Amino acid sequence: MKMSKLVFPGITMIAVTYGLARFSYGLLLPNISHDLAMSPSTSGTISSLFYLSYCFAIILATVLTINKGPRVMILIAGALAIVGLIIMGVSPNVWLLGFGVLLAGASTGFASPPYGTAITLWIENRKQGIANTWINSGTSIGLVLSGIGAIFLASEWRVIYLVYAFIGVIAFMWNAKVLPRTDSEPYVTFQKGKFSVKGVKGSAPLIISSTTLGISTAAFWTFAIGFIESTGAYSGWQLSLFWVILGVFGLLGGFSGSLIERFGLPFAYKWGCLIISVASFLLAWHPEQWSVSYFSAALFGISYIFITGLLMVWGIKVFITNASLGIGTPFLLLAVGQVFGSLFAGIIIDIAGFVPTFVVYGSMGMISIMLGPRETKNTSADKINHEYLPSQ
User: Fold this and answer.
1) Cβ-Cβ contacts under 8 Å for 196 (sequence gap 6 or more)
2) How does the average pLDDT of the chain come out, rounded?
3) Residues 275, 26: Cα–Cα separation, whole Å
4) How many Å apart are CA 48 and CA 218, to the nearest integer?
5) How far lies 19's CA from each of 146, 301, 332, 384, in Å?
6) Where are the domains of the chain?
7) Do the first three CATH levels of 1-188 and 195-392 match, i.e. the same topology?
């Protein structure tokens, strides 16, 4: 298959599921909280549902893709995103909003593993790294779109969610048209790998680091907009611009492959963690100054996409005989950390306020620096990793 034929609809679907259905919640949260009378602890609990449903969905999708093929799973992801966004857009209370959040969060879990399989099946080996990189960039593109939408419809979060659902319909139809049916291609087979981390050398640091990073980033995703909005120093479009900056600079995180290859995985990991921490510390320092907060958004956008790409490479290196498990494990545990991180961030904000919360979560990022990969000699695993890196 021609790479662009799969990549462009893939970017669109990832933009819808991750950027619009999942991460836009933090951008729209101040207005949602006002209209539905939600406290920070309630907002954090609702946010944790995104990550909780993602955890279950990514496990289910990884298993079902083997039997059903990537097309069915990707279309399920699109359908869940559409329905979840519609429910969130019409929800009259917190309970229905929470149900929509569960469906929207699950859409991201169903989208990730199948695209990795689709690329393996239908894109030639030498282009698979480029294809993965471009499809993953859909998250940042979705963040930019959600920010632009909020600039024009700042307080109309219900309308925005329904517009997102319409974009989701377009993504669904596009993918349904271009993705081949595996049942019509008898030569396509799926090999079942071992879905276990037991006894895998190096898996423990990966698990602990991914979970810790998930915790450290949860407060920023969920409450950064609410934090700067609470200062009273920003208009509606300035709040949305914060999100646009985060998404635009997230696109630069795709250069993680170049840095890993040049400086090594441990060095790149430490810098990624440091920058994530600095982003939270900066926001806690002077949230009312737009120059500081926007710089914080830029650093977080770069470092988050950077570190997720790095975790993917690290995971593949650890699970050298099962690349799909190597990708799924850190992403799953990142979300597990975000479940607990969002939940407790809301509680801490209720008790102590935004500034101490962001200092605490920035400190979690600093702790993660000490938990990363160790320097190792080049092995055949490094060659495998290059298939998942951008072309140099």
Assistant:
1) none
2) 85
3) 20
4) 9
5) 7, 12, 17, 29
6) 1-188, 195-392
7) yes
CATH architecture entry for 1-188: Up-down Bundle (1.20)
For the chain, residues with pLDDT lower than 50 are: 186-195, 199, 377-392
Residues 6+ apart with CB under 8 A from 272: 256, 303, 306, 307, 310
- d(CA 142, CA 180) in angstroms, rounded, equals 25
Q: Give me the pLDDT at residue 199, please.
A: 45
C-alpha atoms less than 13 angstroms from C-alpha of 352 in its C-beta half-sphere: 12
pLDDT digits (tens, 9 = 90+) for 229-281: 999 999 888 999 999 999 999 888 766 666 777 788 899 899 999 999 999 99
- Beta-carbon contacts of residue 224 (< 8 Å; ≥ 6 apart): 26, 242, 283, 296, 297, 300
**Would you identify the CATH topology of the domain 195-392?**
Growth Hormone; Chain: A; (1.20.1250)
Place of tokens 């857009």: 89
